[in-house]
Design brief:
The complex is a heterodimer.
Chain A lengths: L3 H13 L21 H8 L6 H13 L9 H5 L2 H4 L9 E3 L4 E3 L1 H11 L11 H12 L15 H12 L9 H5 L6 E2 L2 E2 L10 E3 L4 E3 L1 H11 L10 H13 L10 E2 L1
Parallel strand pairs in A: 5-7
Antiparallel strand pairs in A: 1-2, 3-4, 5-6
Helix pairs in contact in A: 3-7, 6-7, 8-11
Chain B lengths: L3 E4 L3 E2 L4 E8 L21 E8 L2 E7 L9 E7 L4 E9 L4 E10 L1
Parallel strand pairs in B: 2-8
Antiparallel strand pairs in B: 1-3, 3-6, 4-5, 4-7, 7-8
Chain lengths: 259, 106
């Protein structure tokens, strides 16, 4: 006789009492990293097996490449990114005085590109913008997320918060219905994480490529049969802003690997 | 050409088993997908990977369409002498990319 039958009820009890009840409190926050299998975690942790590092290398080249009518590279103004960009991505989305609202890192890069380099902005989700934001994001790896202390953004965070709790789509789910109320449980074969966007742009194995937080959010929205916002829409940036303010103090992981 | 990430230990003891990790950016287009116009996107995969150690082949692999984009290949070998490891990937367009890494064996 094996010992299993005796322990089985106990095991069942442990599984039932596992995580996934109520919203994640401040000290109970976990990165998506913690919900992954050990193989995927190892893939992210080793820079020579993390495919997101290919984008970082690409971004480094773009950083030093001259572009636009001004014939300037990012490095011509910002210099060595390992110093000048250290900790920068941890503050994004950030308040932009020009538009009077929040902008994300991709938008900041493209603003620089338009105004300083006098070049065409990169299209959303293009290899170039993902590479540059992965490169800039990588300079903040391990540093705590700083979003959420700018009083000018309080109203926008509130709007993102409302969007997070707004039921939507044919399935009538809000983001919170899964990521606050049911994190740690399974949706199909996948574990539901807590919605802390600390590793973007991520290399997602399902995509076999690097992608932005907005691409990920569009996935979720079409998943609940809602009409996804378009790339760069104010709703998305507010949602990004709210998600990052939730993650305040957690470590930046860019480029993260996710299943 | 494509970006690669190679991890070869710079030094090793003679007779030690060393692990070599390689990652290359490649779309690995299967040839089974259709584009927006409904036509098949032509197959473009890396179909061959070879690693030589001071000119001698120590590891090779044939790759097939089911292998992911940006393939990660890892394998082990015995460190016998100081020298150079040459890693080369060949794709369906006939392009071969070769990267080298030095190793010092004590």
């Amino acid at each position: 006789m094996s010992v299993w039958p005796r322990f089985l009820p106990l095991l069942t009890l442990l599984i039932v009492a596992g995580p996934g009840t109520g919203s994640a409190e401040a000290d109970d926050r976990r990165s998506g990293f913690d919900f992954m299998g050990p193989q995927t975690q190892a893939m992210q942790s080793d820079d020579t097996s993390n495919p997101g590092m290919l984008a970082v290398l690409e971004g480094e080249e773009l950083w030093n490449r001259k572009a636009g009518a001004a014939d300037k590279s990012c490095a011509d103004c910002h210099g060595d990114a390992t110093r000048s960009m250290r900790g920068v991505a941890a503050h994004y989305p950030a308040f932009d005085t020009g538009t009077g609202g929040p902008i994300n890192l991709d938008q900041r890069i493209n603003l620089c590109r338009e105004n300083k380099q006098e070049a065409e902005p990169f299209p959303w989700e293009s290899e170039e913008i993902l590479a540059l934001s992965a490169f800039v994001g990588h300079q903040s790896r391990g540093m705590p997320v700083q979003v959420g202390d700018d009083s000018r953004l309080a109203g926008f965070i509130k709007q993102g918060d409302d969007a997070f709790h707004q039921k939507q789509g044919q399935l009538n789910f809000s983001c919170a219905d899964c990521h606050d109320a049911n994190w740690g449980k399974h949706l199909g074969g996948s574990v539901i994480p807590q919605a802390h966007a600390t590793g973007y742009p991520i290399y997602r194995l399902e995509w076999q490529s690097v992608g932005s937080l907005q691409r990920r959010l569009r996935n979720c929205m079409s998943g609940v049969r809602a009409e996804p916002y378009s790339y760069g829409s104010p709703e998305f940036v507010e949602l990004e802003l709210y998600l990052m303010s939730r993650s305040r103090g957690m470590a930046v992981e860019t480029p993260a690997v996710r299943p | 050409m494509a970006r690669t990430l190679i991890n070869v230990p710079p030094t090793a003891k003679r007779g030690e088993v060393i692990e070599i990790k390689t990652l290359i950016s490649h779309p690995m287009e299967t040839g089974f997908r259709t584009g927006p116009d409904g036509a098949l996107i032509p197959r473009d995969i890396i179909h061959r990977f070879v690693c030589t150690y001071n000119g001698e082949e120590i590891f090779s692999a044939d790759l097939f369409p089911a292998i992911t984009a940006n393939p990660f290949i890892t394998f082990t070998t015995v460190a016998t002498e100081s020298g150079e490891l040459a890693l080369s990937w060949t794709d369906d367009k006939g392009q071969t990319q070769t990267e080298t890494a030095k190793i010092t064996v004590e």
